[in-house]
Specification:
Mean pLDDT: 81
Low-confidence stretches: 1-25, 239-245, 484-489, 492-505
Distance between the termini: 91 Å
CATH class of the largest domain: Alpha Beta
Helix content: 40-55%
CATH superfamily of the largest domain: P-loop containing nucleotide triphosphate hydrolases
Strand content: 5-15%
Shape: globular
Structural class: alpha/beta
Radius of gyration: 27 Å
Strand order of the largest sheet: 5-6-4-7-8-3-9
Number of strands: 16
Largest sheet: 7 strands, parallel
CATH topology of the largest domain: Rossmann fold
Length: about 500
């Protein structure tokens, strides 16, 4: 069904100076439907578009709307800002009845996006009298329950809060017709999968249509689609062009002296399922693995300095899926095949351009998608772009995440985890918990108390998302540091002490 391309499909010419690729301008389902235009839509939808000030449809809307109107389950690859909200809201307006109860649910990763989508739906739905409501945590249940009682047709919300309402019985899905996942990759990255699986139990027995919109479709998103959508078709759009690539090539231009901190921030934002991190030297492998371990990540190294026994133990953890981050040189990583590797991260570009292809080729296998991330500093940016020219790779340059961005994303993720844990507590556990409510209310009034709360949240977050590093890996690092320190001490002894007492005249 899909026409795709990966680094494995690169065919180099005899002079190795160029790469031929076959990539169609449009990747669409079989039996593709013709694009829609604004004038071809039903009059009610034209009126809705007019209220929003639309004069034409954006590419993702023109491509996707016919499938949603036809009731064909669909996965859509589309970047943020491409107009995807209108692509699913307009068809929803045509397929629901005002005041007849919840007929469409849009699942989103954050409260901000819930409010944004609901507001756009309210604007577009004004012409047909279709109302939407935003459902998210951190606010009172009362107004949300009132919206359900008034028969709101479109519910936009985070999986956790919608699940809360379903468990309380304040929301029923008996009239549900449409289920939409917006920014599915981000929802999984934030830890919403358990909530979505529990939500699945509340879906009606009658058939419903499912639609999934995501910037990327790694294997975990594809699995989610297979569990909620009925034989979905695939439509890929990006930057006003429809295409699909198994590997996304990204680089961050960072300060050389702060590369390690930028690496940690990128990992915090990306939240890889698993990652292979490449360094050009053994010294950098040891340093990067130590930084990640110290930060609390389940990371280990693979270099020629390891004994065969230690190497086998590391590889055993890799094969069993018990090691999330593996740091290695090109030589040490030869022959390694990690299933469902979501990210290849290059701490520095390779010296050999061919090595770039071999590195990123370890992700995006078996039809899944992956991401190749490279950190560059100074002239490394030029070296990487030259690799892109040689192999016809379209690199995306992204701004390094700021501390504020990391704080926001981590806070969102931690909230999801905490809400899920609270949801699972029984009555006795909740009663026991009440002992600490006064303390919880009082904390945060001073800097010391804020630090206590931050420490508790950090401990919980690390335990929930980042398993403790392998103690054997930490021991190896400490032994290596001790050995290096001993070597330095021997090297700094006075020459006469190493060769015996000097002769005196």
């Amino acid at each position: 069904m899909l026409q795709s391309i990966s680094v494995h499909d690169y065919q180099m010419n005899s002079d190795s100076s160029s790469v031929e690729t076959k990539l169609e301008d449009c990747v669409e389902p079989e039996n593709a439907l013709p694009e829609a235009t604004l004038r071809e839509l039903p009059e009610s939808l034209q009126a809705a578009a007019a209220l929003a000030g639309w004069t034409s449809l954006m590419p993702v809307q023109a491509k996707a709307i016919p499938y949603l109107l036809a009731g064909r389950d669909l996965m859509v690859q589309s970047r943020t800002g491409s107009g995807k909200t209108g692509a699913f809201v307009l068809p929803i307006l045509e397929r629901v009845e005002p005041g007849a109860g919840c007929q469409a649910i849009v699942l989103v990763p954050t409260r901000e996006l819930a409010k944004q989508v609901a507001a756009e739906a309210e604007t577009l739905g004004g012409a047909k009298g279709v109302h939407a409501t935003a459902i998210y945590g951190g606010v009172d249940y009362g107004p949300q329950i009132k919206a359900f009682e008034e028969g709101v047709a479109l519910v936009v919300g985070t999986p956790g809060r919608i699940l809360d309402h379903l468990m309380k019985g304040s929301l029923s899905l008996n009239t549900l017709r449409l289920l939409i996942f917006d920014e599915a990759d981000r929802m999984l990255s934030m830890g919403f999968f358990p909530d979505m699986k529990r939500l699945q139990k509340f879906l009606p027995s009658h058939p419903i249509n499912g639609y999934m919109f995501s910037a990327t479709f790694p294997s975990r998103v594809m699995r989610l689609a297979s569990q909620f959508l009925d034989n979905p078709e695939f439509l890929s759009l990006s930057r006003d062009r429809v295409h699909v690539a198994e590997i996304e090539h990204v680089f961050y231009n960072v300060q050389a002296m702060k590369k390690d901190r930028h690496l940690v921030r990128i990992i915090e934002v990306e939240n890889p399922t698993s990652a292979l991190i490449f360094c050009n030297t053994k010294a950098n492998v040891q340093y990067v693995s130590a930084v990640l371990q110290r930060f609390g990540y389940d990371a280990d190294e693979l270099s020629s300095d390891l004994s065969q026994d230690a190497r086998e133990k590391v590889m055993d953890r890799v094969r069993r899926g018990k090691l999330r981050f593996l740091v290695a040189t090109d030589v040490a990583a030869r022959g390694i095949d990690i299933l469902e590797l979501s990210h290849v991260i290059q701490y520095e570009p390779p010296k050999d351009p061919e090595a770039y292809i071999h590195r990123v080729g370890r992700t995006g296998r078996a039809g899944a998608t992956g991401e190749g991330i490279t950190l560059v500093a100074g002239l490394e940016r030029i070296e990487l772009l030259n690799i892109g020219k040689r192999f016809n790779i379209d690199f995306q340059e992204r701004e390094p995440p700021t501390i504020k961005e990391v704080e926001r994303i981590v806070a969102e993720r931690a909230t999801v985890l905490l809400e899920a844990r609270l949801r699972d507590r029984d009555k006795l556990q909740i009663e026991r918990m009440q002992r600490f409510v006064p303390l919880a209310r009082s904390l945060g009034e001073t800097n010391d108390e804020v630090a206590i709360m931050a420490m508790l949240l950090d401990d919980y977050y690390q335990q929930s998302l980042h398993p403790a590093p392998d103690p054997n890996a930490v021991s190896r690092r400490l032994r290596r540091q001790h050995s290096s320190s001993s070597e330095r001490k021997r090297d700094t002894k006075p020459r006469g002490d190493r060769r015996g007492r000097r002769r005196t005249r």
